[in-house]
Structures are given as C-alpha cells and as structure tokens.
Amino acid sequence: MRMKDRVALVTGAGGPMGMAVAKRFAEEGASLVITDISATRLAEGERAVAEAAGSAGKVVALRTNAMVRGEVEELVAAGREKFGSIQILANIVGGYQGQHYDGPADLVHMTEARWDATMQLNLKPGFHLVQLLAPAMLENGYGKILNISSVNFAGEAGSADYGAAKAGVASLTRSLAMELAPHVNVNAIAPGIIRTRVLAMLGPENAEVYRERSLLKRLGEPTDIANTALFLCSDEGGYITGEILPVSGGIWPAL
Questions:
Q1: Cβ-count burial of 99 within 10 angstroms (0-12 exposed, 13-18 middle, 19+ buried)?
Q2: φ and ψ at 125, to 5 degrees?
Q3: Which candidate, 181, 205, 180, 175, places its Cα nearest to that of 193?
Q4: Distance CA 165, CA 192 (A)
Q5: pLDDT confidence of residue 151
C-alpha cells in the first residue's frame, strides 16, 4: 500500500481525471479530502472513492469553488478536523470554464472574460491551496504537491489563453519546488488529450489531430494520469521534484 497512513487532498474530484486520481490514491491506502464545484459530480466521486477505499470513513467530500479563498479554507479545515494533517495535494481542477468557451478562440478576437476565466481556473486554486497547506508540510518535513499543466503550455494556435495558463502552472511548479525544498516534492503532469469532458468541447476533428500526433495513436485515459500521479505523490517518486512530466503518448511540449 504505497499511500498507507497518508492523507491527500484532490481537487476536481468529480471529473474523470480527478476522480481517477482520487480512486487510485484510495486503492493504495490514502485517506481522501475531495472537492468539486459541482455537488452532483462530487457525490459521484465520493461514492467511487469510498468504494475504492473500502470505507466511507476514509473520505471527506465538500463542494467547493476552489477559486474562492473562504471556501478553500473551509475545505482544508474540514479535512484537518477529520484526519489531522494533509500531506499530499493534487491540484487537478483546471481547463476551461464552459460558459466562456464559446466564441472566437484566436487571441485577436478572444473576449477578455474568457482570458480572465481561464487564468483564474488554472492558477487561482493552486495559489490558495499551496498557501494553506505548504506551511504545515514544511513544519512536518514532508509533503507532495502535484499540479496539472498541459502539452499545450509550449503554445498552441487557437488556445493561447489555455497555453499561457498552463505555462504559468509549469513555471509555478518549478518555483515552488525551489521554495519548498528540501522537504516538499513539487511536480506537474503535462497531459495530452485525455478522455474527459474537454473532448466534447474540442470536437471530433480536433481530437483526431491529437490522436494522430501521438506516437501511440490513441487518446489518453484518466487512469494514465492517475497512475503517474500515484508514482509522483508516493515515496517511489521521492527523488523527483520540479519536473513537468508529459503523459501524452509521445507528444513533447517544446517552445
């Protein structure tokens, strides 16, 4: 059990990727603090994680808008009240806010609302959670932080907002690895296209472009991300920090 006696906080746990990460951690013995902005999705995630853990008592679920400081403070407090310290943080929430996704995608015509929403969703949750959790990790001399970037952080026409936000995540990962060393490992995964709700936003033609770019000629599955997250957040990845690891079927992010 690679996460026995560990407590992990996973955001976006109602979505396919976050739920897969939370379930994988639970299967390896972790207690979970999970959240999602959707109460309906979160309830589904809570059931799945409790089943994987073999006990509902090993899961705390609280609907949270991770961009709002007060709500994140309540989430962290609930987790600590139940389990004590939280040693692992998996920042899975990110992507696009659906209400701002429609409309021109090129930067020249992009709305300011879409730009701001994408930056907020991909960067603000990690800002709040690291500030709230990292001090205790440093005090205890142990911690793991995982962020989700994207292969698009190197730039992609038609998604300049998303690419720039994920470049910010990659840079933040490196900065935190330096600031929190030597006691806290901070890494990021840079996924290719994974089978999540993003596929519906992209449409079949764009999804096919990513499939063809992949050396493995397939799209990624949430379990591909979950297995990598388990490695980086367990002691097996203890000598790795400050890395942005592509999980993309061979698509390499490069400026």
A1: exposed
A2: -60, -45
A3: 205
A4: 15
A5: 92
List, as one string, the DSSP characters of 169-223: HHHHHHHHHHHHTTTEEEEEEEE--BSSTHHHHH-HHHHHHHHHHSTTSS-B-HH
Active site residue 239: no
pLDDT at 137: 98
Distance of CA 243 to the CA centre of its chain: 15
Among 96, 101, 142, 162, which one carries the catalytic annotation? 162
pTM given for the model: 0.94
Task: Note the pLDDT of residue 101.
Answer: 58
Rounded CA separation 154/166 (Å): 9
Quote the CA–CA distance of 116 and 95 in Å, as a whole number: 13
List of E strands, the chain: 7-10, 31-34, 59-61, 88-91, 143-148, 184-191, 244-247
pLDDT along the chain (255 residues), means of 10: 96 97 98 97 97 93 98 98 97 80 79 94 98 98 98 88 96 98 98 81 75 90 97 98 96 78
Q: Please, what are the domains in the chain?
A: 7-246 (3.40.50.720)
In the chain, what's the furthest Cα-to-Cα distance? 51
Q: Judge whether 133 and 51 are in contact, CB under 8 Å.
A: no
